[in-house]
What we know:
Blueprint: E1 2-12, E2 17-20, E3 22-29, E4 36-44, H1 48-57, E5 61-67, E6 75-86, E7 90-99, H2 106-116, H3 121-134
Helix pairs in contact: 2-3
Amino acid sequence: MKSFKLYSLDVVGDNSSVEVPLVDGLILNKEDEHSTWLLEAYTNMSLYDYFKKISEQNQDIIVEAVITKKENAPAYFQTKISSLLKFENYISVLFEGHLRRNKSDYSELLLDNLMQKGLEGEDLLREFKEKIKSKPKIKVKNP
């Protein structure tokens, strides 16, 4: 098993995303035969009802995680909430899921996004170079 610091986490919907303000976070690659990952977000109590609803519906959710430091490209995981715990002032949300290898490469997602906006040629190249450095969030469609 390998563990990493979870730098940032967003829950990605079809038309929006919810940024999860992390007090702390951890991500584990279980390195098991199912290629399972665990992501734990320790966050504000204000998100409890949001996550409780998702958990009760037992629905798959896509999360965008940046691991270790801001400069790293985000990774996308298809997950379910396996645990939701209340503490005095915070909550712990434990996600269990799998790395989305199809379209999980940030540069491929970015290029596709820019091309969908109609950019081409030098404009496409210039915008791509700028965005690859600033790493804006990109919406990912649920499967």
